[in-house]
Amino acid sequence: MKYSRLTKEQFEELHQEFINFLATQSITHDEWTNLKVNKPELAETELDVFSDLIWEGALNKAEYIEHFAPQHMYLFHLDEANMHAIVVNVKNEDIDITTQEGYNWLRENLMDDNVEFLQADKDYSEDKNLDKFKMIEQGAVITKGELYQYFYKLIN
To answer: Where are the domains of the chain?
Structure first.
């Protein structure tokens, strides 16, 4: 398995897609029920393959990823060749931008001396989707890029 298995909730959300996936494998409902009981290791493999397919599709489509930490906001634009990062650093350790209060402070004090903006490009490794996935595993989320675009316009 390349990524991670989807959660029970994710499988429930993707129930129809999973049925379609099994159909492409020529596995009927009865055969699936039988597999789960009599060949659980094979059923587990099918769940893993489906999970990887879903992750691969989501990661291929992802254009923006964000990650928040108490004093840092990491905003990534996922280009074809590399990732462009915008990092917003809050130098005041009393401000925690992962809270509503701290985030509101940041919004109202963007030009404060305690706020620093950095930009950088980062090349992908040989497997750019795995690079994206590792960021998600560390707490980043795929977004539509509104924050990235806002800060890109602000600092460029």
So the answer is: 8-61, 64-155
